[in-house]
Amino acid sequence: MVVTVLGASGRTGRHLVRSLVRQGHSVRAGVRNGRRREAVAGLGATPVVADLCVDPDELVDAFTGSDVVINVAGAADPDPAAVALVDRDGAIAGVRAAERAAVRRYIQLSAQFADAPDQGDRLVRSILYAKQISDNVLVRSSLVWTVVRAGTLTDEPATNRVSVAGHLGAGRVSRQDVAAVLSACLREPRTENRGFDVHTGPLPVAAALAALD
Ligand SMILES: NC(=O)c1ccc[n+]([C@@H]2O[C@H](COP(=O)([O-])OP(=O)(O)OC[C@H]3O[C@@H](n4cnc5c(N)ncnc54)[C@H](OP(=O)(O)O)[C@@H]3O)[C@@H](O)[C@H]2O)c1
Fold it and tell me: What stretches in the chain show pLDDT beneath 70?
């Protein structure tokens, strides 16, 4: 499949690109501008400029010919204005551009409690509300959708073992394991048109996704 990754230069993004390339996909690594191409060099992907906050037509061009878009971009700055720009409006722009580019499937990396922000940590509520809004736009779009709500991200090594379920509460998961889940979604039809939480857990990634009810 041709897969475009938004936020490919980020910590989860780089793991995800590597995982997708290993699985034999043709990967376009979305970067905010030409100066960020270097951040995805050597990963085996083709860099494409795809800034969620600039020109929707540029996004459509970047997506055209893709079977799948996976959005793992996020604001670097937790300031609510930056979060609204990237995680809400930017993420919505990504969904709309994918519809215009006739992409079939769209996978969004979201956060635990984005489906119930009032229950999440007060310190990250602006992020949760922003993600709730953009997740809901994706769910109501014409795309085949998946929303993966990760627990607190860590840089611990991959375990390739996770728990996935509609709601898991608070927990943690490594960026490498999240990347493994996102790429495994392409092989598991049960993940289509579904949102779920993911934490580190007992089951191998493929088995965990296959057991989603
Ligand atoms: N931290 C947590 O505990 C946690 C928990 C659950 C979910 N999440 C979410 O998981 C995702 C990945 O997190 P991470 O820590 O791996 O991210 P990260 O390392 O901070 O990387 C973020 C990526 O987003 C890109 N980006 C920023 N603004 C953009 C824009 N306007 N257009 C396109 N790309 C843009 C960045 O590009 P540059 O490299 O050019 O800056 C970078 O590639 C984020 O959405 C985050 O909110 C985080």
Answer: none
Was domain 2-210 assigned CATH 3.40.50.720? yes
Confidence at residue 74, expressed as pLDDT on a 0 to 100 scale? 98
What pLDDT is recorded for position 213?
85
Atom from ligand 1 closest to the CA of residue 178: 10
Which residue from 1, 47, 64, 7 is spatially nearest to 179, judged by alpha carbons?
Answer: 7
Phi, psi of 212 (to 5 degrees): -60, 135
Residue 51 alpha carbon, nearest atom of ligand 1: 32
Which protein residue has the closest C-alpha to ligand 1 atom 7? Answer: 111
pLDDT of the residue at 121:
93
DSSP 85: I
How far apart are alpha carbons 213 and 125 in whole angstroms?
29
Residues 58-81 as b or e (16 or more Cβ within 10 Å = b): ebbebbeebebbbbbbbbeeeeee
DSSP-derived pairing of the beta strands 144-150 and 194-200 = parallel
Quick check: 150 and 130 in contact, CB under 8 A? no
